[in-house]
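Co-fold these.
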Amino acid sequence: MTPAPRIGIDLASPVPAGRQIVDAIRAHLVEGELAPGDILPSVRRLAMELGVHFNTVAQAYRQLAEEGWLDLKHGRRAAVIGRGAVDAAGPDRIPYFQRRLREMVAEMRAHGVAPASIAAELRLFAERLKS
Amino acid sequence: MIGIRLLLLFPLVLILMLLHALPLLPRRSRLFGAEVPREVRYGSEGGRLLRGYQVRLLPLSIVALLAAWWAPVTWLWLTVASPSMAALWLLYRCHAAAVRFALPPPSTREASLSGGAGGLARRLMWFAPPLALVTAAALYLYLNWSRIPERFARHFDSQGNPNGWAFKSVRGCFGPLALGAAIILFFMALYMVMELGSRRGTERSAMLACLAAPGYLVGPMFAIVGLLPMFVPPLWVFVLLIGAYFPGLIVLVVRAVSQSAGGPSEVTPDGCWHGSFYYNPQDPALFVDGRTGFGLTANFARRLVWLLLAIILLVTAGLLLLGSKLLAQTATAPEDVASQTVVRLVDGKYDEIYQSFSADMRAALSLEALKSQIGPQVSAFGKLIETRKPAIQQIGGNTVLIVPAKFQTVWIDFTISVNGAGQVAGLFMKPGQAPDSDRHPPAYSKPDSFSERAVTVGAGDWKLPGTLTLPRSQTPVPGVVLIHGSGPEDRDETSFGNKPFRDLAEGLASQGIAVLRYEKRTKEYGAKMAQIRNLTVQEETVEDAVAAVTLLRAEPGIDPKRVFLLGHSLGGYLMPMMLDRAPEAAGGIVLGGNARPLEDVMLEQFEYAGSLPGGDTPEARKQIEELRKQALSVKDLQPGHEDGPAILGVFPHYWLDLRGYDPVAQAAKIARPLLILQGERDYQVTMKDFDIWKAALAGHANVTLKSYPALNHLFIEGKGKSVPAEYMTPGHVSGEAIGDIARWILAR
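Predicted complex below.
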């Protein structure tokens, strides 16, 4: 059995802890490291492990449930569910993600990451998406 | 004693070793609580700090060990406390030094996304074996309930002698096992809370080891203690258990620590540490990795932690209380209750005695009565010298102990019964006897010149144990039978520390006269005799005297023609009657025998007692007046009054039987030799009696009369007025009187 995936949060980061948790778990979901049927730690346990408030984790789980990744109905245990085919995002949502990508690239450049490296990273993601 | 000392030193050595190992125990990236680069931890700076700690602590440890070897036991705690305090201070100083090398704390924190329970149930199984052991012991007790004795030793001194007891009850038997189980369950609950309230750090196995380990000592310990009603293990079993436990514990802790020492340490913001206290309201964890030692520490910002601490304190206090309650139920040994009661009586601690009384006893003897009645009696005995090992008897649920106590001049037997709860349920005292080892024989007793052996006087229902004192002689010797005074006398006529018949037997035997003395029938068969309504002096005294003469005459080495009777007090009064009934007796000796009727002599004694200091209290006056009335009523008895109540301790028939008896008139008719001796200081049978004997018998050639100015009723020398308290002073029968008796007998 492969060890359960881990997530990490940076308490010093300006990004709110809740966002960091959602993003990190979603990454594992999208990449398939968390498969349907997997059980996530309870809100209490994850909050304790990460040293954040229970509500922060609960909020993150709720957002992931809204996105259709998690089933929160069975008590407190959060279970990963098969998301099935998602309806193609409407054309009105695309500009939002474009803006976020642009902001991310800008942040990377602001931190001094070379444009070539950024391009390489993006190409890596593009390659993975194709396979 | 050295063994005990070693036993105490053992934990001290372990604690000192732990203090020295303390900086080495935390994970490898830590130096005195600071997260440092490995090259600092294992480089010259780390080495210097660690060496500094050891070098400063070492002298203290050595001093503590030496002190523990020499210091009085009550100061031993200092030998543990002082190195511990010093180690704490050193740790603090070293921490301050190590912080300079500390890495900036990382700000990322990681968590596994595993949703499993994390193996809590599996880890809790570590608590199962000791719990199972305690449960098995309880089951064993339950199945063998009928074999458990009513009372069993629960606590032992260092020599292995029991000094604490418990009783067969659910609490007494299962209490220790329940307490042991509660302690183990408490640690188990504590571990559960710690695991649930902390991050999945690597310190967890160390915590588990620390909390599960006590159960492996507590379990077997309480199982052994719980099985005490069935088995009493030798002391070395405990020593072995502790001896095997601690090395095992060390192995376990080292393993747990080495497992935890590898991983990265938990991220906790530096600003939240105040010394070794963690306070972080943002952190939901109740427990976080400690910084100074190893293991977990509480996050004091969480209210739940305070609640938990309160619960831990309460449960600890509850367990201690439960433990002390169980100990309180293990009553003091009855022997200790008894000797304690005697000492309290002598010290006048009546309140404490009253506290130790059972409910029935309190009802029977009030505190006031204890103070006003028992108190003065005990203080009259003088200073308590010692108490001897008591004779013990189990009567019903009570333990009845007779404690011989030696006072300055007297021996008193305290009879104390102790009930199942260790309370005093009965308290009596009566004059006791000095043990043989305590007796100083009189100067005239020459133990080399005679031998003693047991004989039986009479036969059948009333046979009496006696002692024959036989001089070592080639030729037949004369013999004498000693006849007691009134009351249930033993063969020695023991009264407090005095044994006049023993003095007489040894004194006369030393001068070549065989002496036979025996237990009085009213002494040997007291309860049976008290039932006989038509008891007379025949059954009380005369029949046995006649049987004793017959016995002595038949003994080898005795000249049957020269067997005499010696009667003391009542025995002297009855001498003429006994000589009539025993015609083969060669003659009689009267020591302090009354010539007047018994009731007259007794009346005079009561009046005398009333005239003494202490006889004029209202209670004493009332008592004396009552006795006076009884003595006077003897005169009014008529035939036909036999069914009336007892007077002065005997039934009317006894008095009526003596009605016509005149010892002097009867003595006058006896042709056999008579020796009549009297102590002039005697207040019980007085010179009045002697004068009556003298007046009637002075002219008789076969009668010899003599009185001794210094002697009392027991023929013991004294000065001034003879008083009852005089008998409490041990003494010996006058050698002069014994010499006179011996010469008189040998001349016949």
